Structure formats: structure tokens, C-alpha cells
Amino acid sequence: MTEPSDQPDPRIELMLANIDRAYDRRSFHGTTLRGALRGLKVDVAVWKPAPDRNSIWQLILHAAYWKYIVRRSLTEDTKARFARSPSNFPRVPESPTPAGLKRDIALLGDEHRRMRAAVATVDVTTLERPAKKRGPTRLDLILGIAAHDLYHTGQIQLLKRLYPTQG
Predict the structure, then answer these.
(1) Is the pTM of this model over 0.85?
(2) Which one of 22, 30, 97, 117 is most buried, counting C-beta atoms within 10 A?
């Protein structure tokens, strides 16, 4: 017997709760990705501990990009394009401003909401299928995006602590 279509699938609800706990909902692990960005200043956001390392601003765009990738993979929308370039680690503006940082944090939030909506409508019978002809399954992508948020949250928190303050 199948579940009524008006009832949310508990597997989807659990995955959404996992995504939310990593991004912006209270959880035992501490700071979420969105929480790590609260009150972020431009000078901290663009600072790199070494020239070949990423800044917090780059990590914001990277996280937004991978939310876009998960959404595009789940919806099979081949026409969707990410708002920034190049892919994966889009460029930070040459002249960073508080308004620009706010826009890119908003982009992350927008991509999170779009990706979350795609997860909410996934056909559970397709979860074990690869999202593309080969590669990770839809389930792997959904679970992985929450882990991705937490991984980069840790990096962001560390970068904020390492930032050299005037003293």
C-alpha cells in the first residue's frame, strides 16, 4: 500500500531537517553556515591566510554554487545557470563592498531555498538512482550538501579566528 500523496514522505522530511540544521536551524553541533556569516565584515570576508588559500567570501560563493549544482541535478534542469562565474569558486568582486557581500550572502540564501524546494519535491523512488548517467545518487547529493555546509562552516569559523586583528 502506498502513502497518500498529501502526506510528506518521512525520508524527505528527515533530509530537509538535516539540510536545515546545517544551514540555518538550531542544532547540537553549534554554529550553522548562515550563523557563521552573521555580522561578517568585508575585511574579514576577503582575507586569506595565504595567497593560495580561499577567503570566506570565496567559500560563500562556493557553497552557493554547490547548492545550485544539487538543485540542477535533482530537477534535471539543463538550462539553469549560476549567477556568478567562473563555476565552483566564483570570483570575488575586485572592489569588495558591504553591499556586495550582502548580495552574495543573499545569493547563498536564495540558492539554499531553491535547492531545498527541489529536495522537497524529489520522487523518493528515484533516491538511489544516479543524478546523472553516472556518479553520486540523488540521496548522496542531498545528504552531501548538508555535510558540505558543515565542512565549510568549520573553515569559515577558523578563518574568522585566524584573522589578524588590530591590537
Answers:
(1) yes
(2) 22
